[in-house]
Amino acid sequence: MEQKGECHGAGLNTIKYTREEDVAGERGQHQTGQKRHFVGVLRLPGTVNQTCSSPATTSAATMSGMVVKNMSFKAGQTMTIIGKPKPDATNFAINVGPNDKDVTMHINPRFNAHGDENTVVCNSYQEGKWCEEHRGEGGFPFQQGEEFKITIGFTPDQFQITLSDGSQILFPNRMGAEKYSFISIDGDVRITSFEIK
Q1: What integer is the mean pLDDT of 3-21?
Q2: Is 28's pLDDT higher than 90?
Q3: SS (H, E, C) 108-121
Q4: What does the pLDDT read at residue 12?
Q5: Which CATH number fits domain 59-196: 2.40.30.10, 2.40.160.30, 3.30.530.20, 2.60.120.200?
Q6: 164 contacts: CB under 8 Å, gap ≥ 6
Q7: pLDDT class of 136 with cuts at 50, 70, 90
Q8: What does the pLDDT read at residue 89?
Q9: Which residue ranges make up each domain of the chain?
Q10: How far apart are the C-alpha atoms of 30 and 162, rounded to whole Å?
């Protein structure tokens, strides 16, 4: 199922989106014409006065960080993020989890941060503490000030992260869930496109 929409305005603050799923009939049979609607919110920096309508695909040159709550990212779906690190970027992070307190997949490209240079570090944050880091897998195709694309998919066992140069990082799905509803992107990066389908 593809989730799409658009947003109008120079800066972004809150984007509402909706998505539909077919309602199954008895014994899993499809009931024609019946839909179940879901609503979520993207919270982004920017101006407050916007006119936005139902995106889960969003594109905006002004996004420098974002939080997505109550969104359905399910096993088998693909999340695609396109962005550009700032010219003087030290690092940025993409976090996926069930809520804002636990992170099952943290991917942190580091240009020069936390004692690392040109390294991608992956980890999880559970019950108030970081778990064991995975680092250096998949190369480092990121350049300060240049566009990148990251594609993320997952199963109950692992995340598969594909970087701009086609290299891949496999990271364990430590919580083992089949659905996550919290996604955040922060650090020295400007996001230009975000899509789940």
Answers
A1: 36
A2: no
A3: EEEEEECCEEEEEE
A4: 38
A5: 2.60.120.200
A6: 141, 142, 148, 149, 150
A7: confident
A8: 97
A9: 59-196
A10: 34
For residue 116, pLDDT beyond 70: yes
Which residue is it, tokens 């975000």? 194
DSSP state string for the chain: -----EEESSS-SEEEEEEEEEEE-GGG-EEEEEEEEEEEEEE-SS-S--EEE--SSEEEEEES-EEEES--EETT-EEEEEEEE-TT--BEEEEEESSSS-EEEEEEEEEEETTEEEEEEEEEEETTEE---EESTT-----TTS-EEEEEEE-SSEEEEE-TTS-EEEEE-TT--SEE-EEEEEESEEEEEEEE-
**Is the sign of the CA dihedral 41, 77, 97, 83 positive or negative?**
negative
